[in-house]
Amino acid sequence: MSHRSIYRSVVREVHKASIKAPSSRNKDIAASFREIFDGRDKASDPKAFDYDLQNTITFMRSQRMYKELLDRYNPLFDLTAEERIEATARRVGLNMPVTVTPDSGKE
Questions:
Q1: Residues with Cβ < 8 Å from 46, sequence gap 6 or more?
Q2: I need a surface site. Which of 35, 48, 82, 101 has the fewest CB within 10 A?
Q3: pLDDT digits (tens, 9 = 90+) for 64-106
């Protein structure tokens, strides 16, 4: 792969992994990537640099796919314990009873 296509792959994966709009992203991250690619000419081993970047792209793509699969097949993953219990009860057709706290002021 050429350096240009590797750079584009890295930028594409960063774009897909980001949850913010491009205008609100941290500009230092993009500047750091540009600096890394500009410094590639000074690298002692260009093949090692390309290999490391391919590993970086593979890692970023794998992390994104892992999160997508986790969200798809485990929708209760990011819920709190109480929300998870309520969602599980709803799944089998039950509703959780309303819990009464001792500090509610009703006697």
A1: 40
A2: 101
A3: 999 889 888 887 777 888 888 888 888 888 888 777 777 765 5
Checking if the pLDDT of 18 tops 60, the result is: yes
Q: Which two tokens stand for residue 55?
A: 């590993």
Q: Where are the domains of the chain?
A: 3-14+26-91
pLDDT given at position 25: 77
